[in-house]
Amino acid sequence: MQDYSFDDVMKGRGSKDAPLDTLIVGAGMAGLYALYHMRERGLSAVVWEAGDGVGGTWHWNRYPGCRVDIESVEYCYSFSDELQQEWEWTERYAAQPELLRYFNHVADRFDLRPSIALNTRVESAIFDEASGLWKVTSENGDVAFARFCIMATGFLSAPNQPQFKGMEDFEGEQYHTAFWPREGVDFSGKRVAIIGTGSTAVQAIPLLAQQASHLTVFQRTPPFAVPLRNCEMPREYLEKVRAEYPEWRRREREESFGGWVAVNFEYADLVTKSALEVSEEERLALYEDRWKSGGLAMYNIYPDTVADPEANATITSFLQEKIRARVDDPEIAELLTPKGYPALTKRLCCDTNYYETYNRDNVTLVDISQDAIDHISKKGVVVAGKEYEVDAIVFATGFDALSGALLRFDIRGRDGVQLKDHWSDGARTALGLMASGFPNMFLLDGPGSPCPLFQPILLSEDQVRWVGDCISYLDGEGRSTIEPTSGFEDDWLDLCSTALNATLFPQANSWYVGANIEGKGPVGLAYFGGINNYWDHCRTSADNGYAGFTLGTKTASAMAK
Ligand code: N01
């Protein structure tokens, strides 16, 4: 692996007179493929990446237990069958080090590194009306101009760090799971607190409890967690998937309610019936079957479990009973059992010995649903006047999802309007791909896209192709810019809200709807109308000359044709 200097990567490209075709922000799963694809199309492309390595999520998140909870054979690129055939996944659900190796392998195998400027955090991206170019500036003071800016900044990449009173006074160590030290942390013999009980914490807690002398978990909302049932990758399963990849990928893309639950040691057929149409016996047998197969398979049953309260109640009570059965102390079991919001509406967590960890003597659960954390003292965490003394605090407090990463630097479109002002009442996009007033700026896995309910690697691959087709179309037609009309953006926002409100998702305070961040949700932050419908909208627009978008004036050379 060889990394390149900023100057090598830019090689004098990206000046106002010789702009890049595309400048891609972020070298995670979406940015790497965007780079590959734009180059394949003969467009010049570079990636600016804030980190000192590629891999995005898997570069930053290195906390104990960090692994993907979509099957490895699915959570990988589909664009190269050679890559699909040659990569040897070692576990059913790959752990962070293996995923990071995979994305590094992709960067090497497709010779992407010479076009990736690492340690280059974007400070601003400003649309220059006179030239019709994006001027992008890094925190290091580097400047580049590009015709198109592709934001591959990640949908779970802006960590949420609550500012508790007194944090600066704490005399011990503090860590956020999304900024985990590369060398790891040894908690042996230490008293550790963890704040948060989402997917991240559910993975970390069992391992922290094994190492720390004592672990205190501060829980505001109990999650629904199901066993992941990770194992070594069975050879015959890997071979089977490899042989059948085209069909598996087709089904992932075409069978709605989110391809990311389609693969589960077999291609379980999507159940299209109502949960209320079948007998209780049949329903429970299916729940049991999916629970035993592990992971996110619980989503792939009876679509009305996420839309109809009565149907949902059947799976909610099933999962509640499963939790109670795993915890010895009935009082702790009750605290761990979610009530007051429907199962599946906060993202299901996948666990390995999560609930059993509360049966250990060295683990304390502190319920902060009524009394929030008051402050952090010199010695620990204070709740309702009681101080929990610890040596280290781990914040597993999640992310400002979808829109968060795009609002952490200065993006300005036409008339100098800042994206944060355009989105002051909530993120608004057309097709989750562009925002009005921000010409030639494309978003991958962005707000208004279906990414929370779809396999994000596959979604970004397909979005990148849509963007590539769009650029080719503009170039073919001699058009300089594309941007959605504000009417189309309004319509898309309405569609997102309508689709969301037809589900039970707004009933939970989750990142799906922005409700985990104060003042943000619940909003139609994503498209919940199904992946098929999403692509119907995107294709219909493209097939009709990018209906809903305004295309910039034809260039002089195009006019002369
Ligand atoms: O974040 P979260 P996450 N005081 O938002 C609590 C993906 N992911 O990093 O629920 C006290 O789910 C908050 O409490 P509440 C996956 O898509 C995937 O765990 O808001 N507590 C919650 O318990 C996942 O859904 C994988 O009441 C506070 C927790 O912090 C997404 O990332 C692994 C608080 C945050 O949970 C996000 O997961 C990990 C406060 N002020 C993550 N603020 C895999 O693929 C927040 N909390 C396996």
The end-to-end distance, rounded to whole angstroms, is 46 Å
Largest sheet: 8 strands, mixed
What is the assigned CATH homologous superfamily of the largest domain?
A: FAD/NAD(P)-binding domain
- CATH class bucket of the largest domain: Alpha Beta
Q: Per CATH, which architecture of the largest domain?
A: 3-Layer(bba) Sandwich
* Beta fraction: 15-25%
Q: Kindly provide the radius of gyration, computed on alpha-carbon positions and rounded to a whole number of angstroms.
A: 24 Å
Content-based structural category = alpha/beta
Query: Which bin fits the share of residues in helices?
Result: 25-40%
Q: Which ions, cofactors or small ligands are bound in this entry?
A: 3-acetylpyridine adenine dinucleotide
- Uncertain residue segments: 258-263
Mean pLDDT: 94
Task: Give a structural overview.
This protein is of the alpha/beta class and 561 residues long. It has three domains: 255 residues, FAD/NAD(P)-binding domain, CATH 3.50.50; 115 residues, FAD/NAD(P)-binding domain (3-Layer(bba) Sandwich), CATH 3.50.50; 74 residues, no CATH class. The chain is 32% helix and 16% strand. The protein contains 16 helices and 20 strands. Strands 1, 2, 3, 4, 5, 6, 17 and 18 form an eight-stranded mixed beta sheet that branches. The protein has a five-stranded parallel beta sheet with strand order 7-16-8-9-12, covered by helices on one side. The protein has a three-stranded antiparallel beta sheet with strand order 13-14-15, with no helix packed on it. Helix 2 runs parallel beside helix 13 and helix 9 runs antiparallel to helix 10. It starts with 5 loop residues before the first helix and ends with a helix. About 1% of the residues have low confidence. The site of 3-acetylpyridine adenine dinucleotide has 25 residues, from helix 6.
